Structures are given as C-alpha cells and as structure tokens.
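Private note to self, pasted from the team thread so I don't lose it. Backbone tokens:
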C-alpha cells in the first residue's frame, strides 16, 4: 500500500509518499514521545538564542517559545495526537507548533538538524536518569545504614563459598552493600559529568553557517559547555552506554543482595522476615509467603545488561556520523532505566521493612565451627606456635568435635590438650562469637566499634 501524500517536513524532493511498511520501520514516535519535555526545552533555548543572535526576529522567537509551551501543556494533559506519519517527537512537536502559530514555526529549525536535536534531547533525558539513580541509591544506602545501626553488634555467620566462615556482625554485612551502592553513585555521578556537554548547534554534522551562540544554548540547558566537535556531537552515544554500564553494575549488586534475601527469608535460614507489604502468597499453598520482589530484582540484571550489550552492538562499527541505526538507542535505555528505578525503589522498601531475627543469626553464627580461626590465632598468640601448625592442630579439634556431634566450645580441656598439651582453659574465652567479632578491630573489620565508626562516616557522607 502506498501513501501518495508527501512528507510535510522533508518531502520536497519526493514524488511519492512512503510505503506503510517504510513508515512503520522508520517511525520512532511510539517510544521517543518520552522525550517531549527535553525536546521542547531544547527548542525553546534554541529559539531564544536565534533571536539573541539576530537570526530570527524577537517577535517570531516569542511566538515560538509561547507556542511550544502550549504544545507542552497539550502533551502533559493528554490532549496531543501523536502521528506516525510525522515519524518522531521532533517533527510531531514542530508540526503542531505550526498549526498553533503558523509561519514562524518554520523558522525554528534554522541552524539545527534532528541529528543534534535528538542527541541533545536524549542526553538531557539520560542526565535526569543519572540524577534519579543517585537519589534512589542514596535512599537505599540510608535504609541500609538504618539496618546497620539497629544491629551494629548482632552476630551472624560470615560466609565464603556459602559455607560458614567466621562470625561477623549484621551491621558490617549491611554496610558492605552501602560500599557497593555508593560506588554505583560514583559511577552515575562520573558519567553525568562526562555527558554534560551540549550537542545542540552541531546541526546535521558539520556545524552551521549561521552566527549561533552554542555557549548560550549549552548554558540555558544546564550543560557545562558545548560539545567541541560537531561530528562527534551528533554521533556519540557514549553517554547512554555509560549510563547502561553503571545501571548494569548496580543491577548486579542488587541481584546479589536480592539473592541473599531470598536465602535468608527461607524456612531453612530464617535470618530475616520480609514484610507482608513486600511479599506475595501462593494461590495453592496457603502457608507460603514468597519473596517475589527480591526474585524480580535478582532478575532485572538480565534485561539491563542486555540493554547495555544491545546498544553496544548497535553502535559497533557505525561510521561517522549519524546513522538511522542510532534510533535504536532509545527503547533499550528507556526499558533499562524504568526497571532500574523500580528495582531500586523496591529494594529500598524491602530493606526499610525487613526485620532481622537476632536470635537466629546468633545461633547460626555459633554453629559450623565459626570460631576455628580464633582458636588457631590463640595458639599463635598464647603458645607462640607458627600459624601453619596452629591451623593443623585446630583442624584436628574440628574433626574431633564433628565426630562427637558438638561444637568447638563443647570440647573439654582434656580433649583440647590431646591435640596440644600446652592448651589452657583460657582458650574458651576466644571461642565465643561475641569475643570473636569484638576482636576484629582492624580498620574495616567486623568489630562493633568499627561498624559504629563507619556508620557515623556514612551518615555524614549521605546527609
Ligand atoms: N528519530 C531520529 C532518532 O531517533 C531522530 C534523528 C533523525 N535524523 C535523521 N537524519 N533522520 O535518531
């Protein structure tokens, strides 16, 4: 089927209109309408600059700027008819502007192209998402600090290989995630700084012969400066890739914590109880309370990393400058950003609501020979043994306890001395989990004093 109508925006050299399938593959309005606010802000800044430079009249600029506000409110109130024939948000906005203000609308596109326009709009959108991610990550960190403060000295098993390793404190474990999520904040902050250069005025690719002021439009849109090479300005999508990379690492961190929550809320662990508000039931098993939010958060890294890989593949091998391939940049970023924000909000809610079971944490910490390293360290300190020998002696005591079906502190002194005659009953003082964690005073260690000091640091940093 062929539409005989010429495209009103670029149809001058065409005798025939696009095939319906051409229109379908070409149009981006179904998704890039999300850029409407950025598009209108960019156009308003551009019009003001054109007038200030004497390129269009003040009267036309005023009509354009006011007309764009009308378009904005039409879109925001749901009174705007988006048209596929008009391809994208840029042409939809301009065509509607023309209906509202007439001839001056045709002057808005002086000294610019959709290539610099879309690069600017999309940067503004991604920049906002960086800010949003930083805000949501900070809120999540505060929720984790709250958990850490409540249980700074609660003892739980620390794991390696998901096997009991050494006792640690709940507060310390919570703060490990604060470290991770604060590095994510750093990545979004760095990416934002790097992307904060304005492509507008690069025009199609080569710059323009009109005497524009790119510094003025850059400043009006909150950019630090105009992008310095017009070819790079219209063809660069690093800002979107950096956002996706930061998002993928954040989602990976979220997935690790989500996995712990799934394990910890199981009947076999019972380390935490998730609130009803962040759990779901089963339609067949009445007893079930499922950690669905945690599971979905655990899964989000798949689509977010997929978006990162997907856009990398779109950009790979593209010659300078703009190619229509690059229209495929948006849906992946939109989807990744939506899901990242949702996952961050859900995680924050879960963390704020969840209650750790102090007694179960301590019980688990006290089993599994978690203080074996403390015993070995004591043999080194008290008896002057080389650590390797101490390790071996402790190992034999673990084997003895395992055979008896008890834990290390349950072995009597005679049994202890059968492994090394020099052992005294002072050894029992290091076998308790509270002494164990309290002794780990090295900077960054799990001792409650260390945890409390780090909590104070984080409160100051996150405030
Ligand atoms: N819809 C396009 C995109 O998203 C806008 C830029 C179109 N430029 C062009 N020369 N066809 O990339």
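Design output:
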């Amino acid at each position: 089927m062929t539409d005989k109508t010429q495209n009103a925006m670029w149809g001058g050299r065409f005798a025939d209109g696009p095939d319906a399938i051409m229109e379908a593959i070409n149009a981006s309005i179904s998704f890039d309408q999300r850029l409407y606010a950025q598009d209108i802000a960019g156009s308003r800044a551009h019009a003001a600059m054109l007038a200030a430079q004497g390129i269009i009249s003040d009267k036309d600029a005023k009509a354009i700027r006011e007309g764009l506000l009308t378009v904005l409110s039409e879109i925001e109130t749901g009174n705007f008819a988006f048209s596929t024939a008009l391809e994208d948000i840029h042409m939809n906005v301009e065509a509607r502007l023309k209906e509202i203000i007439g001839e001056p609308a045709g002057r808005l596109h002086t000294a610019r192209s959709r290539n610099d326009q879309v690069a600017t709009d999309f940067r503004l959108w991604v920049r906002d998402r960086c800010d949003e991610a930083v805000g949501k990550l900070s809120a999540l960190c505060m929720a984790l600090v709250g958990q850490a403060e409540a249980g700074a000295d609660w003892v739980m098993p620390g794991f390696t290989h998901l096997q009991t390793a050494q006792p640690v404190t709940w507060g310390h474990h919570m703060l490990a995630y604060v470290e991770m999520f604060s590095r994510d904040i750093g990545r979004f902050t760095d990416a934002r700084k790097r992307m904060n250069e304005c492509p507008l005025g690069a025009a199609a690719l080569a710059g323009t012969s009109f005497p524009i002021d790119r510094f003025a439009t850059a400043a009006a849109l909150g950019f630090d400066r105009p992008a310095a090479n017009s070819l790079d300005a219209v063809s660069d999508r690093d800002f979107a890739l950096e956002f996706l990379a930061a998002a993928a690492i954040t989602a990976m961190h979220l997935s690790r914590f989500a996995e712990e929550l799934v394990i910890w809320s199981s009947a076999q662990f019972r380390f935490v109880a998730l609130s009803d508000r962040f759990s779901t039931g089963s339609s067949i098993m009445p007893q079930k309370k499922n950690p669905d939010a945690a599971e979905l958060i655990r899964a989000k890294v798949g689509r977010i990393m997929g978006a990162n890989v997907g856009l990398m593949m779109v950009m790979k091998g593209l010659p300078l400058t703009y190619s229509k391939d690059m229209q495929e940049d948006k849906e992946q970023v939109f989807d990744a950003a939506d899901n990242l924000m949702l996952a961050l909000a859900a995680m924050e809610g879960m963390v704020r609501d969840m209650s750790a079971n102090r007694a179960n944490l301590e019980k688990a910490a006290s089993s599994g020979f978690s203080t074996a390293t403390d015993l070995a360290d004591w043999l080194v300190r008290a008896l002057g043994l080389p650590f390797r020998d101490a390790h071996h002696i402790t190992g034999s005591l673990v084997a003895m306890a395992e055979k008896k079906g008890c834990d290390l502190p349950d072995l009597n002194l005679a049994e202890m001395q059968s492994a090394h005659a020099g052992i005294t009953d002072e050894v029992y003082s290091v076998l308790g989990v509270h002494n164990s964690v309290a002794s780990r005073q090295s900077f960054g260690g799990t001792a409650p004093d260390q945890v409390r000091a780090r909590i104070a640091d984080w409160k100051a940093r996150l405030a």
